[in-house]
Amino acid sequence: MPAQHHVLIVGAGSIGLRHLRCFLATERTAISFVEPREEVRQSIIAEYPAAVGYASLEAALAAAKFDGAVIATPAPMHVPQAIQLLECGLHLLIEKPLTLDIASAEALAAAAAESSSVIGVAYVYRANPLLAQMRDAILSGEYGRPVELIAYGGQNFPTYRPAYRDTYYRDHANGGGAIQDALTHLFNAGQWLIGEMEKIVVDADHMILDGVDVEDTVHALARYSGGIMATYTLNQHQAPNEMSFTVVCQRGTLRWEPTQNRFRIATEPDAGWQEIQIEPLQRDELFARQANSFLDAMEGKSAPLCSLAEGVSTLRANVAALDSWRSGAWRSTSL
């Protein structure tokens, strides 16, 4: 079947390549990409002969017509490129973090208000079917009002991102460090489950990761709308790859454990958990689901998994968390 769309991947680092691979796998779109390094560009074309490579965004826009784009460049480039592509009428999927500051996010929101394009932010946890099921259970009201969120994550970052020392991760100014790179995913998932964060206090430090100075360990307390309390704990150096989200409601406790491929519910003391287990998801599966969801949004079939407004809300949590860590004080997300 001929491709229905033509999507441009802007930035062909590790995450850009994953988007390229997963959009191709949908068999719904032709793919082009932007990579200024000639040697890298040619190696990608050799591996993915269906893709067309360009040395710059300007060269791509001059040479072909696109209806969508994925922005996977370093975070400071996201907003200028997004506004440029909006002016060309493209639908956009923008990698996290959306940007680094609220002012640029508001500039993007203003440009988006003048456009009919779909804009999504690539918080890929929302593509996990078990997290969606947990959210539906919370929103159903069956378990009462949420009162507490406990989020925990840890993994050996060099195992999954061996080149981290040579990427944006090493510099806050490029969107690096554990808060902007990893904890932001947890913030976004928490927002999806229980609503808007109102304030946060953070302790963080560089504890172990070799070759960088940015924080690799973060502890945070937060308050959400409706008085919901939250705790976030994350490190990027432990041996086991673990994650869990627990939401304590008035009449039940719900827990998502993505590394165990399960969602659990407990409603009675000492009665054990009710478990919903699925087969392990392949490494690219969430990104493939995200790609299909974005193409559906482009076609008007559904909303983006994470809207621009929701991405801006998560950015406010990022900014408040960094400010709290540096100041040693509670910080509001509304500033």
TrEMBL record:
<dbReference type="Pfam" id="PF22725">
    <property type="entry name" value="GFO_IDH_MocA_C3"/>
</dbReference>
<feature type="domain" description="Gfo/Idh/MocA-like oxidoreductase N-terminal">
    <location>
        <begin position="6"/>
        <end position="123"/>
    </location>
</feature>
<dbReference type="Pfam" id="PF01408">
    <property type="entry name" value="GFO_IDH_MocA"/>
</dbReference>
<dbReference type="InterPro" id="IPR055170">
    <property type="entry name" value="GFO_IDH_MocA-like_dom"/>
</dbReference>
<dbReference type="InterPro" id="IPR036291">
    <property type="entry name" value="NAD(P)-bd_dom_sf"/>
</dbReference>
<dbReference type="InterPro" id="IPR000683">
    <property type="entry name" value="Gfo/Idh/MocA-like_OxRdtase_N"/>
</dbReference>
<dbReference type="InterPro" id="IPR051450">
    <property type="entry name" value="Gfo/Idh/MocA_Oxidoreductases"/>
</dbReference>
<protein>
    <recommendedName>
        <fullName>Gfo/Idh/MocA family oxidoreductase</fullName>
    </recommendedName>
</protein>
<feature type="domain" description="GFO/IDH/MocA-like oxidoreductase">
    <location>
        <begin position="132"/>
        <end position="255"/>
    </location>
</feature>
<dbReference type="GO" id="GO:0000166">
    <property type="term" value="F:nucleotide binding"/>
</dbReference>
